Q: What sequence folds into this?
C-alpha cells in the first residue's frame, strides 16, 4: 500500500523511554486518512474514530490531526490506552464484564455471586458506560445509592474493583480510579456457642451424624472444607517444634479441598492449603467415623454429606434444645471465640484459622453488650458507695 505523510513527524516523549513519533497518513486506495504513532516500542495505527457509539473513518486531514492532538494530550497525562481508540474494544462495562466473568477460574457459585454484583453495577451505570470514564465521584454515588446492607455494598464494590484491576492488566485502563473506603465490618454481633451450649446441641444430633460436626468444631474448618476432607489429607507425621527446639511428629490434617455447593474443588476457599495438628479429641472423632470411600465423613458410608443435609440435621437439633444459631457460625466461629474467652492470643487464633490479617480474626474478639455487662459486673468494686440503693435489686414488701 502506497502512503504519503500528510505532515512532519513531531517527537513526543513517552513513558517507555525514547520518543513517540506521530503522523497522519492518507491511504491512496480508499482516500481516507489514518494515524500512525510509535508507542512503547510498537507501531500503532488508527483508522477510525468514535461518535455516538458508532465508528467512522477519518474523512479529512484536519480531523485526523485533531484526534492525534488528543492522543498526544493523553500521552502527556499518562492516560493513553491504544485499545480505547479501536472499534470492538471491550470498553463498555457490560461487554467487558462478560469477558471478565468468562475468564475467571472460580466455582459456579462464586461466579454467580460475581455476576449478581456486576449486574448491580451495570444497572446503575448503564450498559454502554465506558469503564475508562468511571471516576471516584461516580463510585461514591453508586455506593450511596445501593439499597443493600453494609456487607452487600462491600462485596459489590469489591467485585467491581477486581474487574477494573483486571482491566488495568489488560491495558484497557491506564490506572485505577479512586474507590470509596470499603469496610465489611458491621455492628452485628458474632454469634457462637459456649461449651455447655455446644454439648446440648451435639447430644441432640443423631449419633451417626455427630462426627462431621464435632470435627468441624474442634478444628474450626469451614463447612465446605470438612465435607471435602479425604483420607489422603490426614497426615500421620506432621512435624511440630517444641519449646526446647526438639522436633516431634504428630497426627495432623491438611486442608486442600473444599465443596462449593455440591461442586468439589481441588483448592480451599482462600486458594492456599493449610495444615493443623490434631488434638486427642479430634483423633478420637476420626476413629468414630466409618467410611468406605475416599471421603472421611459420609452420609451413608459412601457419599459425602451435602450442605443441605447438614443444615437440616443441625436445625432439627437446635430446635430440640431451644438454641438458635446458624451452622456456619456454630462450627466456624465458636472455636475462635472460645479460645479468646480463655485468654489465648489473637495471633494464635489467626494462625489456627489461616487468616491473612489479624483484622479478620479480631471480629471473633467482639462481644455482645450483654457479655460486656456480665464481665463488668463480675469484676471487683473500685469504690464502695454507701447509702445508694441498687436499682436492679427488687424492692422488699
A:
Amino acid at each position: 500500500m502506497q502512503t504519503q505523510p500528510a505532515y512532519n513527524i513531531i517527537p513526543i516523549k513517552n513513558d517507555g523511554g525514547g520518543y513517540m513519533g506521530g503522523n497522519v497518513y492518507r491511504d491512496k486506495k480508499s482516500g481516507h486518512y489514518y494515524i500512525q504513532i510509535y508507542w512503547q516500542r510498537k507501531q500503532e495505527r488508527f483508522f477510525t474514530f468514535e461518535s455516538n457509539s458508532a465508528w467512522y473513518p477519518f474523512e479529512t486531514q484536519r480531523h485526523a490531526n485533531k484526534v492525534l492532538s488528543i492522543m498526544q494530550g493523553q500521552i502527556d497525562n499518562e492516560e493513553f490506552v491504544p485499545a480505547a481508540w479501536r472499534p470492538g474494544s471491550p470498553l463498555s462495562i457490560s461487554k467487558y464484564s462478560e469477558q471478565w466473568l468468562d475468564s475467571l477460574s472460580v466455582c459456579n457459585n462464586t461466579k454467580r455471586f460475581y455476576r449478581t454484583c456486576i449486574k448491580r453495577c451495570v444497572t446503575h451505570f448503564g450498559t454502554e458506560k465506558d469503564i475508562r470514564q468511571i471516576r471516584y465521584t461516580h463510585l461514591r454515588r453508586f455506593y450511596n445509592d445501593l439499597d443493600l446492607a453494609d456487607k452487600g455494598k462491600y462485596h459489590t464494590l469489591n467485585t467491581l474493583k477486581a474487574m477494573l484491576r483486571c482491566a488495568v492488566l489488560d491495558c484497557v485502563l491506564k490506572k485505577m480510579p479512586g474507590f470509596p473506603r470499603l469496610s465489611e465490618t458491621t455492628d452485628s454481633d458474632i454469634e457462637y456457642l459456649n461449651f455447655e451450649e455446644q454439648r446440648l446441641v451435639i447430644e441432640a444430633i443423631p449419633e451417626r451424624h455427630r462426627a462431621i460436626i464435632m470435627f468441624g468444631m474442634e478444628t474450626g474448618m469451614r463447612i465446605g472444607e470438612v465435607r471435602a476432607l479425604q483420607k489422603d489429607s490426614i497426615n500421620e507425621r506432621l512435624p511440630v517444634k517444641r519449646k526446647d527446639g526438639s522436633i516431634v511428629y504428630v497426627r495432623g490434617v491438611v486442608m486442600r479441598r473444599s465443596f462449593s455447593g455440591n461442586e468439589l474443588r481441588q483448592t480451599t476457599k482462600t486458594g492456599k492449603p493449610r495444615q493443623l495438628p490434631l488434638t486427642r479429641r479430634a483423633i478420637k472423632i476420626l476413629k468414630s467415623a466409618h467410611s468406605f470411600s475416599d471421603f472421611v465423613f459420609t452420609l451413608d458410608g459412601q457419599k459425602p454429606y451435602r450442605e443441605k443435609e447438614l443444615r437440616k440435621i443441625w436445625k432439627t437439633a437446635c430446635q430440640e434444645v431451644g438454641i438458635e444459631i446458624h451452622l456456619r457460625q456454630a462450627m466456624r466461629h465458636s472455636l475462635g471465640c472460645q479460645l479468646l474467652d480463655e485468654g489465648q492470643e489473637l495471633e494464635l487464633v489467626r494462625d489456627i484459622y489461616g487468616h491473612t490479617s489479624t483484622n479478620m480474626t479480631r471480629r471473633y474478639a467482639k462481644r455482645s453488650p450483654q457479655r460486656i455487662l456480665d464481665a463488668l459486673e463480675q469484676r471487683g468494686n473500685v469504690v464502695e458507695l454507701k447509702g445508694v440503693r441498687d436499682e436492679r435489686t427488687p424492692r422488699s414488701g
Observations:
- The longest helix spans residues 150-169.
- The two ends are 109 Å apart (CA to CA).
- Confidence is low (pLDDT under 50) at residues 1-19.
